[in-house]
DNA sequence: ACAGGTCGTGAGAGCGCTCTCGACTCAGGG
DNA sequence: CCCTGAGTCGAGAGCGCTCTCACGACCTGT
């Protein structure tokens, strides 16, 4: 498959520049402690030969790979339709690129893959891992931590309360939810419903907590579990409208859910926000801005989360658990007021 | 989580098994030409020590990396909302995993990144590349081909007509579109409209060609350019309904567009399919099945496309009875009849 | 002037692995 | 009986790079 022309080596560069391999190496790696005329000569030689360092040889001696694994534990196709991962990936990619790191993508599907991923990570092929695991009962995070690879989680891992030391980046789901519900209450709404996400995901659970912080568990009939999808939102909204009294406000666990709920509300002739005020979560632009009316929602900067995960991992470097060790970050959310509430 | 224990080397395995490093290597790589008792001894040593080959050292001598780059040229955030890439990625990932290859993800954003990607690929860090480039004027594909890396494109590259030798995997967009439109005509519809995708993408352009194969360019007023999004579909549908006479059938360039169009049709009180028959493209399940009425659409197996791309790259083209040189594959589509047409 | 330091450079030792090549063994044929 | 050849195995030479270390050149201060 490979019939590439022989690539120039450092040796060749050194020869052309009339210096030793050691000096050429120094220049390629920043050029500290090399006098200017030589630096220039080597740089030119690199340019002329089109030299690119052989990463394998470099890794062999440095024991660094300048590569980070991104693990997405994703048994369900559905979630792919959510731009959430894509945006985080983009943030991660940008940050890694800025630090000349490569992104090795590991998608898992079922338990067999877990072993494979564990083996890969333990094999020391990458300098660290960024892990997305949605579900509370996922064994993958534990497996990975045991592999002894520096790791940053995307979203608070469900089990992390006691097995401290897990570094993660998350949005302030609870605080954001609280703010949304408080806003609805401030509007004078009294029957504020909540359409949740899948409650085995911490983000959904945390948003429910935020809702309860304000509403208490007063009327459990106002809470309907759903699944973060538009169709699920429709279903949940129908269910809510059948209850008595039906809500005068709805806090949906994400924008997709809110868009589904909105569709049902209009179909049933309820005016938004006059009859029912509606708030979403995420501020996913193509969704939130183009609904009618545009969605009031809780914004979280998803791409920034990704960027931060990468930054945390890279900064933590090879020495995890040492004093400079990174600690988790919870990003603030902001309420974006549009027309729906 | 202190210092990572030094990983065992082949040398250590050999010592424990009482053989030479060469023999240990042979066993690790399949064990051909080594007598059974030794094979077993080495295998046990590997097990006991938890030995994992050092990929860097291996690559250094073999010049293979067992890694494939996936390049997604993506200037626009929008497209991420499309599960299209995600599904292809999943297919690719599965196939690569099955062959013990790693997936290195390269996302590009703007021209600066092109140079970076070119350099990376030319640097010989991966055995091949799978490239997604949507737009006709994208310089990336050319750049990559010049890098001399085995490459398979996802979707027909726009420029490939003359610069032959580009290997790609695509759906039969034109044929699928033709079948859809023929179906509409077969239903007795005479004013069949087409809401296109962005016409600088070959998939959208090919679907338009398929439409024209059946309808000719008779009434250019029946063709509206759009952008593969639900909101775009709404806009285009509104535009179509204002025309005289308004269409009695619509072929939308993808399901997302169709769902937007459907929303407008219902809003305006047009019955589907009685007044206006509607067909989409993709058979994206969460969308196509859950619309009301469920969408008749042209199915393409997106995940299979990804899998095939990877297979083509890894096997150098010796796929599906194709002899010798790798050649492109165009996958057939199938019309899925549901209620909308 | 010389001892002691700093700085810039090159020589060379590996990093862990694969792979060639030669040594050795054991059949079987001449 | 030796010779040939196939089958096993080990010794050792790198793959391309980084990094330590030694060495010479050049400063300082006395």
UniProtKB/TrEMBL annotation, chains A, B:
Keyword 4Fe-4S belongs to the record: no
Domain HTH lacI-type intervals: 8-62
Statement: the UniProt record of this protein carries the keyword Transcription: yes
Protein name: LacI family transcriptional regulator
InterPro entries attached to this UniProt entry: HTH_LacI (IPR000843), LacI/GalR-like_sensor (IPR046335), Lambda_DNA-bd_dom_sf (IPR010982), Peripla_BP_I (IPR028082)
CDD domains named among the record's database cross-references: HTH_LacI (cd01392), PBP1_LacI_sugar_binding-like (cd06267)
Pfam families associated with the record: LacI (PF00356), Peripla_BP_3 (PF13377)
Cross-referenced SUPFAM superfamilies: lambda repressor-like DNA-binding domains, Periplasmic binding protein-like I
Organism: Streptomyces cylindrosporus
Alphabetically ordered keywords of this record: DNA-binding, Transcription, Transcription regulation
